[in-house]
Write a structure and sequence with these properties.
The chain is mainly α. The protein is 80% helix and 0% strand. It has nine helices and no strands. Helix 1 runs antiparallel to helix 6, helix 2 packs across helix 3 and helix 8 runs antiparallel to helix 9.
């Protein structure tokens, strides 16, 4: 394979894995930070702490719809607000940002696939260069088993009853989409292996031109 084709395919494969990962994570975070997900969580905590339903709802609105001096999420990453990044990510500002990322990620995925299809020299190479990044990204489906326990350890035991449903929804989204990605990637790699064998057999049957 010509070196520039190899370079393009390698870069596009890395971009594909990263774009898939960013797309799924952003979709999961957008779901986690949606008002309909967070409002019951926060109002129940405040109500159990003795707040009235009206006061709990008012405090949630004050937190969730807060406007930060740093503007949007990229601006707050560059210049962290006094409230900290966590509040930005969990607010409507964070939700609106993460809601837009999957669309951009899908565009990046499609562009990476097009680059692989155009730069690859064999169909087996093209298929494997799409399937392998899918497998790499899909491994994230097992993140729940490694991360949920440690995350709960940082929270007080009495808060687990509130956190577990949120984390289950978050990791459930990750497991669903990364699981699909993993299966598709594995299927593509198997197809790529079959196509490669067919290509090898075809090359063996092509008569070689004799030198004059």
């Amino acid at each position: 394979m010509v070196w520039w084709r190899t370079t393009i395919v390698s870069i596009a494969s890395v971009v594909l894995a990263l774009a898939i990962t960013a797309t799924v994570f952003s979709a999961a975070i957008a779901g986690l930070t949606a008002e309909e997900s967070l409002r019951p969580f926060f109002t129940k905590i405040l109500a159990d702490a003795g707040e009235s339903q009206a006061d709990a709802a008012a405090k949630f609105d004050e937190f969730y719809f807060k406007e930060f001096s740093c503007g949007d999420v990229p601006g707050c990453i560059a210049k962290p607000p006094a409230e900290g990044w966590a509040l930005v990510f969990m607010s409507k500002t964070g939700h609106d940002f993460f809601k837009t990322v999957p669309g951009q990620g899908i565009v990046a995925v499609l562009l990476a696939i097009v680059a692989i299809l155009m730069a690859g020299e064999t169909w087996s190479g093209r298929i494997n260069s799409i399937g392998i990044p899918g497998i790499i990204a899909g491994v994230n489906m097992f993140l729940k088993f490694a991360a949920q326990g440690p995350l709960l350890k940082f929270a007080p035991t009495e808060a687990h009853a509130y956190l577990v449903p949120l984390l289950d929804d978050f990791f459930g989204t990750l497991m669903l989409w990364f699981g699909i990605t993993l299966v598709v990637g594995m299927v593509l790699v198997v197809i790529g292996f079959i196509v490669r064998r067919h290509e090898s057999q075809t090359l063996k049957t092509v008569p070689q031109e004799s030198e004059p």
